[in-house]
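Notes from the pairing session

We agreed to fold both candidates in a single pass and log them together. This is the raw record for the first candidate, unedited. Please don't reformat it; downstream parsing expects exactly this layout.

Candidate A
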Amino acid sequence: MSANDTKRMPRLGLFAAVVLVYVLAWFLPVHTSGKTLRDGVLPGWEAFSVALDIHGEEDWGVVSATIARASALTNLLMVGAMVLLLRRGGRVEPRRWLAWAFVAATIIDLWWARGGANNDRSDLLWGYWLWMSSFALMAAWLFITRQRRA
């Protein structure tokens, strides 16, 4: 094992933790009114579908429905980044803008905890908190990785 591989191992371990938290969040209950695996529904998929619901304007208003959709679409950022990083085996040079994109995604995703879509924070369950945290963890990992390489 080379010295370079030894340096990369902790970074990859942190990245693996981010992936694990994100994936796990999709299987855990997201909202008190949501369905669970026991109901035959993937809770994260249900939450994603509700946030993208094109009829949301009627229930939530245009601004809330737009933010909800933006929140759902942050998953594209996460999956895209994970695919890129996994394909490259962690050997990609993370760009500063990508870390900041994850900071922005975290802020957007926190909208649900701030009462978005008439939500009460106490209605949000482990699945939501892990999912939202995975974006903050990815941002932190990207900043740490970039700093170590600089």
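Candidate B (folded immediately after A)
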Amino acid sequence: MRLATHMTEQETATKAKIAQPFYHNIEAGIKNPSVDTAKRIAAVLGFDWTRFYVRRWLREMRLATHMTEQETATKAKIAQPFYHNIEAGIKNPSVDTAKRIAAVLGFDWTRFYEDEGTEQEDE
């Protein structure tokens, strides 16, 4: 989302009134923002703050394996930005991609389609 605004991490963090290193960790999927922080970032970037929590279960599964978004994406053979968008609920994985991510993180791939009613976007 931030890249579409052409803002740097520092500009986004400053406008959202948070430290740039903390914002970086949120964007990288390392940290989870509080609701207040999520609302401020979303207001700056122009999206619904609840998107931070759409696939929280997926993020928690990844963190339980002690993998970064990059490591998960590499093992699932997809690009990290695409994986980030899947984890953030911005994109939905194809069945093939869902199966690869699930195999990497150790869960049933159909979990992707329990919450969402769609199944198709792929990079």
